[in-house]
Amino acid sequence: MNKKLLLLFLLVLALIIPAYSQENDTSYTNTDWENGDNNADNNWDKIGSHMFDFKIKGAPTIELNYGGSKMNLKSINNNFAKPGMLELRLGYTSDKSYSGSDYVSKYNFKFFHISNFTTNLSGNQNSSDIITNSWRFGFGWASGFGYDLGNGFEITPYHQSSFDWTMVNMQITPSNPADIYTTDLFNKTFRFGNSFQGGIQFKFINNLGIDASYERSIVYSRHLFWKWGASELIEVIGQGLIDKFVEEILDSSPSAVPVVNFLLKNALSYGLYELKQDKMNWPFETAAPLSFDQFKLGITFVF
Questions:
Q1: H runs (alpha helix) in the chain
Q2: Strand 59-72 relative to strand 104-118: parallel, antiparallel, unpaired?
Q3: Measured distance CA(134)–CA(100) in Å, rounded
Q4: Which conformational region is residue 45 in: left (phi greater than 0), alpha (psi within -120 to 50 degrees), or beta?
Q5: Which of 72, 82, 256, 281 is 20 to 30 Å apart from 38, CA to CA?
Q6: ∠ at Cα 253 (249, 259), nearest 5°?
Q7: Does the reported pTM lie above 0.85?
């Protein structure tokens, strides 16, 4: 994908959203949200992703995910064998209905996660590929708006972000000495990273859901705090502008909010993570990160 086109899209989005927000007033208030089936707390200040907000509220939740993954490090010549992935998440879910619509609900999930990526789960091994066994842990938050269709059945498109620490155990080293030096920056040591995920959750009854999602995670060879912070701020501001835009739509066309929120938030994250494939702390001149792309299926238990 052309990086210049992605950057142009992000700039246009940043200009259009605040302009639209200034022209429209909204009567949205916190009282528009009512407790859902799990009796979650109703005192939420804003809608959307709630970046860095980790108040423990909602129903205890266990989520199990399985999927296939693809690893990529653009600065080396060798390829990685494609690992399979198992993941456990423990957290809290809040799910509340919107009084302005009979079938729109608001979803939030904040969690701790631990994952294992290994070629032993996939069987995708070629003699020339780098064989790995990776562990990842961290914490994250997911949010979205869903359609409550009654009798406990809900469809919820969502966006998710997380902070992660990943250790890659490379069981086969590259043949190129320069590649060995680069991969050693990640090998057998925990490195900090970020990830985003877009998915759809299907809840069939109050306590059980099925999840289908795509996730992109990046692992930094070094944590350059100030460059990382400035790079992250770009996404925080962009997601905040989308929150404001979605708030305007919620007041006038609530039925459109789940789809619009899902598309805008995940499009922004995907565009920024594509730009970070070459520069881990884009727009700063930094090294390419190790990245994981995975498609996942999961099952969620809400208590």
A1: 3-23, 177-184, 225-252, 257-275
A2: unpaired
A3: 46
A4: alpha
A5: 256
A6: 75
A7: no
